[in-house]
Amino acid sequence: MFYVRVLSGYEERRIRSYRLQAQQRLQQAQERKAEIKKVPEQIILSEVRRMVEEMQALNKKLDETEAAIDEYFKPIDKEAEIIMKVQLEGEEKTMKEMMKAMQTQALLEAAEAEKNGGLQNADTDQHNQEKTSISKHTEVR
């Protein structure tokens, strides 16, 4: 019977069919193996995506918290700015007063120097007149 099957080509077709099925199974096994190899990559990628999403959520919360802090400190910043302005205006006023005082002092010193200079000239004139009069008195004798 085997001989009839070989001559009719039945066994050859059966062998080819078996070989084709084995090849298909082998190819499917290789595809499953490749998919299994991709699974860790997919797991890693999904984990990375999840971590990125968490980081973005944290960044968003951080931005919101910073905005809330800025809003909370806004009145304090305004008060600090007002205090700084008042202090600067006070310092500016003090400097202006000091400048006026220095100018007044300089004018007083200049007037006093002029007065002293005038007195010295008067003293010198008076001293010269006395010398002249003494000289005239000595000549007359």
Automatic annotation (TrEMBL):
- In this entry, which stretches build a coiled coil? 19-68
Keywords from the UniProt entry: Coiled coil
Annotated region (Disordered) at 110-141
Give the PANTHER family listed for this entry: OSJNBA0084A10.10 PROTEIN
- Protein name as annotated: Uncharacterized protein
